[in-house]
Amino acid sequence: MKEQLVVVGNGMAGMRAVEELLKLAPEKYAITVFGAEPHVNYNRILLSPVLAGEKQPDDIVLNGAAWYAEHGITLHKGKKVERLDRRACTVTAADGTQAHYDRLLLATGSDPFILPVPGKDLAGVVTFRDLADVDAMLAAARQFRHAVVIGGGLLGLEAANGLLKQGMKVTVIHLGAVLMDRQLDGVAGAMLKKSLEERGIRFLMEAKTAELIGKQRVQGVRLADGTEVTADLAVMAVGIRPNLVLAQAAGIYCDKGIVVSDTMQTYDPRVYAVGECVQHRGRSYGLVAPLFEQARVCANHLAEIGYARYTGSVTSTKLKVTGIDLFSAGDYLGGEGCEEIVLKDPGRGVYKKIVLKNNRVQGAVLYGETLDGAWYFDLMRDGTPVADIRDALLFGPAHLGDAGHGGRNVAAMSDDAEVCGCNGVCKGEITRAISAKGLFTLEEVRAHTKASSSCGSCTGLVEQILAATLGSNYSQTPKEKPLCQCTDHTHDQVRAAIGANRLMTMRAVMEHFQWRTPDGCPSCRPALNYYLLCAWPGQYADDAQSRLINERAHANIQKDGSYSVVPRIWGGVTTPSELRAIAEVAEKFAIPTVKFTGGQRIDLLGVKKEQLPAVWADLSRAGFVSGHAYGKALRTVKTCVGSEWCRFGVQDSTNMGIALEKMTWGAWTPHKTKLGVSGCPRNCAEATIKDFGVVGVDSGWELHVGGNGGVKVRATDLLCKVKTDDEVMEYCGAYLQLYREEARYLERTAPWIERVGLSYVKQRIVEDGDGRKALHRRFLESQQHAQKDPWAERATGKIAQHEFIPLKAAV
Amino acid sequence: MSGKAAEKVTPLSAAHAVGWIAAGRLDEIPRAGARVISTPAGDIALFRTLDDHVFALRDQCPHKGGPLSQGIVYGHKVACPMHNWSIELESGAAVAPDEGRTACFPVRVEGDMIYLALAR
User: What is the ipTM of this complex?
Assistant: First the structure.
């Protein structure tokens, strides 16, 4: 017989935990859910748009009746649990419905705080918490004219905006001097107030509510100073309190919330709790992102997998009032030891404040332009040192050379504006999918719409759309993402363990971390294969089946299933006999297209897979090796003609390029890696958009790092200047080895450097001379094993023939 | 449909009656890998999973026709090399939320030999 899991609370946190549990252990429990509201599970954070008339109640259902039925979940809706007997392991609802549990999950949420003033029980006094409240407000709006909202916080302002849209005259009474004073400083609060006043909301600031006046129905609000305000409807939005009643009565330890451990267990280990009712490490959360994280950890334990831990969340806030862009995160006020960087442009309605402490972002308030909110949030959560980018910090990542699609205002985009240029997804499709399918995370939007799932350059835009649609409640991509769905461990954790525990095979890694799948997935297998190859050069046996097709076939697959072949042409310098050999191969195999690549190489396109070994055999005979145009590997070294011919050239860039390519070819790297060498600062080889760029100057060479000419154009940072050719080689090898050892798989040098900071790379490569020499030495050691031409090996018919020759049917 | 090595199976003669063809030896396909076989019915991808099950699908992703035989095989799924759709090897169905289906063909493994039925 299955164990009984009883969930008290049919809200977002509780049902998210059930959803996560069903993913991990669908058959483990017989699940019973009690919900006090007479509804199925709905998206509480979209109540504001329902109140504003932008959505209908049906639009915000997360899991309909069919979902409960499909998973065999018994749903007692409209039944409030009133008794928890921990000795008998039962819960009992108000109507006597009883259920026995083996494990209990409390997800009782929170209750709106009711000001203890006279008149609080009058008709027409409501809170803003559930669909019933919204119904009451909508009914009042149809019948009456004057609404008062008590509380100028996030929820109060959303309620005020909704009631205004329903045609009521709205007055907001706020105790403090600043609206949303839990999220905004004085300047941003004043801008918000002005903007809402322009829409027609009236504010009474620093006003204390003394009494609600009226006989049966509320007629007005009297303030402490004697002022009276007419009101046919009074909405109390002065805060929420965790709902502890049931837990407290059952003797479960509570403080301000139900106290839980990092595994979301209460002091009674059979009883779990998640959501707004919970107090974890002294904190309670009212936003959905942390609750979902709690739900994931809780499900992990209920499924008896038992390694996930909840360690608290950093949260950010966005206001869901159409047309107002506002973002706040962290310590937005600053204080001792803090610095503030401020941009204030009242004419444009823009205000930005970034609070720094010890060169790290401590908090941020953005008003009017919030596109970069997610970026500041990441910097804050990751504790990224910002000394290197401080001068451009206020202007966002778009000004760090990250051109992408930055600088667009999501709120102003029309529904048919294209967001994802790779997959042709427009804004309307994304917002519809978010509402209709109940999506909360970037990953979910990617899976359902394909937006941001290819080149990723629109990721920031998609996150903005998510945030704008869901307000502060969308689940930001977690800081340290698990390597893939097979594990909860991160790239960095896995990598560290490979070295520390001498894990030499993929199987060993998967066993060490208890992978959830027998043989991984298309995300983790190539990553692990790379990490092992990098950690154990010459010892780890490359796993062809864990490589993506291009690297397995050593050629680039094309849309028709044919392949392209790019022979290596050292430094882009060739000879008549090499060109003749390529021409003969192209004719002999009737190769349909011959094209020059962006990296100064020749691309033979349209080769059938079966032909590859023979094509390679001919190319090998002419002295060519693989150009690795297909790999997460050293691709090309692009050069200009340099001082040998050019009247401006000051250094021999072609020979430097050839030497660099001879040293680096064959190296596997976390992502593709491109080099460029220019013979003078005119920089004809475009070395300053390469992963490693070398620019000749009269006194030697400038070394540039972290450039990128693709999806996001990023100019390089200057690493240093060196005098001799030998130094160029040493710095290059050391830099590539640092990148190989420390960047995450599929992370190019540009985002890697932005993540770790240029100062760090300078410290490792420029300042630490011994370290640089050691890195360079490790690079050369690894190259001894890497510089074997994969084409020659396969052309001889000794290796991997099954890859190229189809099976024959014998009928 | 799948066949597993060392599985108890019907005799070959019976198999031939429903149009089985010999498609090769198990050890000709790498574990967690695939190979293409050209047949009168077009290219078919034969997959061998880590646990030595063999599956056959038309070598075309339901999305844009990518050759599934070139994808990464994991569990009883393959990821298309073109746009990374995942396809269930047992049914040919795309893994949700993607939608679509590729034709699958019955396979049986007798000893070391793989047999494939083209008539459906």
Answer: 0.86
